[in-house]
Specification:
Elements: E1 3-5, E2 10-12, E3 15-22, H1 26-35, E4 43-44, E5 47-51, H2 55-60, E6 64-65, H3 68-78
Parallel strand pairs: 1-6
Antiparallel strand pairs: 1-3, 2-3, 3-5, 4-5
Length: 95
Amino acid sequence: MTIYIDPPTWPGHGRLWSHLISDVSYEELHTFAERLGVPRRAFERDHYDIPAQRYADVVAAGAVEVSSREVVRLLHGAGLRRPKGRAQAPGSRSS
């Protein structure tokens, strides 16, 4: 089992965040996150958002540190990438 995390450089809600991913399956990712007590509500499409203050704990638990670019490459390579805001089908309208 290999789980990856990028540096906490993503701002939101007054703090910095990392992305926690698997390059194997969402089940593997959920199992790792659950073991660390990360709530399921922190899962967004294809990753868990991890606050900067938890970064060291997650790495100590076995997550491999990679760049943000590598996170995206790993997700694409595994077929697990779920991008935000996919293009809409022709003729559909946003509200």
